[in-house]
Amino acid sequence: MAIRYIITPYDPKLWMIESIEKFGEPVSDLSIHRKSFLYQARKVWWYITDSLTLIVDDEPSLYCSFIQQQLLYIEIVNGKKFSEFIHWYRSYVPDNYELYLFREGDWDSLKLTKDMTAQDVSAWTGLP
User: Fold this and answer.
1) pTM score
2) Which of 21, 23, 53, 106 falls 20 to 30 Å from 60 in CA-CA distance?
3) Which of 84, 109, 99 is nearest to 32 (CA)?
4) d(CA 118, CA 83)
């Protein structure tokens, strides 16, 4: 079974039924444009394919996809450089957006801040 993580511009707990009934669906004006994302990603991650597959040591490490230009889905293949990629992504998204990392199917999340390190991400996820 594949391990998947999601990064959203709002706390995933806002999607809980009680929250939606009380406050409505969470919204954000964050918009990640694929071409711009790939251009910037390739400055750091020298081999990320057009299909958003991160290649590390000549093999796929992560499969990524954007949903509604806001949600970043990440499927772990071997997980190499996962935490570094998450740390880079936080630096890529403008500071005025909050970002939350969580495992698919779980409500607990890690708020991604500009001050956190790849080691902080690794400690929370247990992945390299």
Assistant:
1) 0.87
2) 106
3) 99
4) 5
Question: Which pLDDT band, with edges at 50, 70 and 90, does 68 fall under?
Answer: confident
DSSP state of 10: S
Q: What is the DSSP letter of 12?
A: G
Look-up: residue for tokens 């669906």? 25
Which residues constitute the domain of residue 15? 3-125
Is 41 within 8 Å of 48 (Cβ atoms)? yes
86 falls in which pLDDT band (50, 70, 90)? very high
CA-CA distance, 62 to 73, in Å (whole number)? 10
**Total structural domains in the chain?**
1
CA end-to-end span of the chain, whole Å?
Answer: 19
